[in-house]
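Record 1 of the preview.
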Amino acid sequence: MPALAFIFCETRPHPTGESPQTDWIGEARFLLDPAADLHHALQAAHLDEVGHPDNLSVQVSAEALFEDGEITGRTTLSAADLATLTAHLPDAHHARVLAWAAFAYALEGQGNEARFVIWFVE
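->
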């Protein structure tokens, strides 16, 4: 069972005709305890083990690189995926996960792309 869950929100500006694609930037780190609740919910929602993209932000890449434990359960979610995930979490976590989605939607409303990069440490 995972001991820790790492949840990062990354953003980057939507590309426009004048500006090319830019790098992702780590915006926030979120916590959910116990990690097993998130792990089970991702499995139940069939959102687990989606993997991480190759273009992670420097902040998130550094966190993963210097992790001492075994990293498992790599997945990447959109704000919309959180609604699916919430249905599989205990009620005590619903407000927290909905706040994460609201945070991402607020960033998207300002012209950014947003995603959640998640992994677990055993």
